[in-house]
């Protein structure tokens, strides 16, 4: 477990919130609420929702005090806390993306998290390999559901070989234990050609499907390989043929599982469809988009929002504009088609397809584009009045993976940089 004060050092306060009214200030630490010591976000959420709060505070000089207040309807607690460091992953997966960064990246990007709290609160994927007995019991006792679990292979020997951790072979025992207690799990299989595809993928889907409904979804995702793999295990890049084979397996299982369980249950990542040059399934095929943040259905969402007019590109203040829409190579064909069907107006909308030199051209998704590559591509696009960025390439709507910022890009280009498309009301 983390130290008591780790996640609860106050970074920002809402002047209209309860915390400010109680005299809590930036830099102070919240230790307990109603005599319950706070270990993580789950404890805080549970205790801060009570009507009457007795808050134990550690001030910046090391002194403790207790303040008391009553929650009023519509008044938030109103405190933001410094980021907590997650529990670290002890696996050494052959495909781990953390090991594939160039030298000199910020330390934050080299943190391998495997934290069940982050899984429950934020939807991060965990492997279950480093859970203590007390943590397993807490998940069960406090009904921390759903969780997001990286399985990769249900075959114990294959999983151990891929993750280089002898504890990783117990995955199905762990899933069965959580399922028996009613914990729902969204799972993923990161597919490495020659390791866990083909018959191993078939077995993994079959064995996870037998745990439905506790296994709520199964995502099939192609491995991401960068050019920075010196002294790492030899892995083969996912090919068009690999993607087509995996999609054939997924679609066959979907037909069977719809008949048996009334759900498709298993879903392929968007990158599978673009790599195989296959049509993106309709929205109903994603059954609520449960793994949208894992790249399952983002392209379908983009297509439908565009067609329905929820996303668009409109001239501001009725003026003529030259607007660049930034994308990675994977989504480029879809966006090219949408723009080609767009009726002519006062906006010249230009698609700016960014090749990923930072990670290598085998990395094609927009979420891994960096500031320096985007700037280089935009400089080759000519004079611009505005730039539209994909939201998933920025942290907190500002920082790229290479530490460049959106503000830096605006200054360098001399044009406003917007996140996402325009709304229908944009003028």
UniProtKB/TrEMBL annotation:
Can you name this protein? DUF512 domain-containing protein
Q: Which organism is it from?
A: Eiseniibacteriota bacterium
Q: What are the residue boundaries of the Putative radical SAM N-terminal domain, all occurrences included?
A: 73-218
DUF512 domain residues: 221-419
A Pfam short name: DUF512
InterPro entries for the chain: Aldolase_TIM, DUF512, PDZ_sf, Put_radical_SAM-like_N, rSAM_sf
């Amino acid at each position: 477990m983390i130290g008591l004060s780790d996640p609860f050092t106050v970074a920002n306060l809402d002047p209209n919130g309860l915390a400010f009214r109680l005299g809590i200030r930036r830099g102070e630490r919240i230790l307990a609420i109603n005599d319950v010591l706070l270990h993580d976000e789950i404890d805080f959420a549970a205790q801060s929702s009570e009507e009457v709060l007795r808050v134990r505070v550690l001030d910046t000089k090391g002194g403790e005090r207790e303040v008391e207040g009553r929650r009023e309807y519509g008044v938030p607690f109103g405190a933001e806390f410094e980021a907590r460091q997650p529990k670290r992953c002890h696996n050494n997966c052959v495909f781990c993306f953390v090991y594939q960064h160039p030298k000199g990246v910020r330390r934050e990007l080299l943190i391998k998290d495997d934290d069940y709290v982050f899984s429950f609160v934020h939807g991060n994927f965990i492997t279950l390999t480093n859970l203590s007995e007390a943590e397993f019991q807490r998940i069960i006792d406090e009904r921390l559901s759903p969780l997001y679990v990286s399985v990769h292979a249900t075959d114990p020997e294959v999983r151990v070989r891929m993750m280089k951790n002898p504890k990783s072979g117990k995955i199905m025992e762990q899933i069965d234990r959580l399922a028996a207690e009613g914990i729902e799990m969204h799972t993923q299989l990161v597919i490495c050609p020659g390791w866990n595809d083909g018959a191993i993928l078939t077995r993994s889907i079959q064995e996870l499907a037998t745990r439905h409904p506790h296994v709520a979804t199964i995502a099939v995702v192609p491995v991401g390989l960068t050019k920075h793999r010196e002294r790492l295990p030899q892995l083969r890049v996912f090919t068009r043929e690999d993607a087509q084979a995996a999609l054939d397996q997924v679609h066959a299982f979907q037909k069977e599982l719809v008949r048996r369980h009334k759900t498709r249950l298993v879903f392929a990542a968007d990158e599978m469809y673009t790599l195989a040059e296959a049509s993106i399934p309709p929205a109903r095929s994603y059954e609520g988009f449960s793994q949208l943040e894992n790249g399952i259905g983002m392209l379908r969402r983009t297509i439908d929002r565009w067609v329905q007019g929820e996303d668009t590109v409109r001239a501001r203040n009725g003026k003529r504009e030259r607007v660049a829409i930034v994308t990675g190579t994977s989504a480029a064909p879809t966006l090219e088609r949408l723009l080609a069907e767009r009726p002519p107006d006062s906006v010249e909308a230009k698609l700016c397809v960014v090749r990923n030199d930072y990670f290598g051209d085998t990395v094609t998704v927009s979420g891994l584009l960096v500031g320096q590559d985007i700037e280089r591509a935009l400089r080759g696009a000519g004079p611009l009045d505005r730039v539209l960025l994909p939201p998933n390439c920025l942290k907190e709507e500002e920082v790229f993976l290479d530490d460049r910022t959106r503000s830096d890009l605006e200054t360098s280009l001399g044009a406003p940089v917007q996140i996402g498309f325009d709304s229908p009301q944009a003028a």
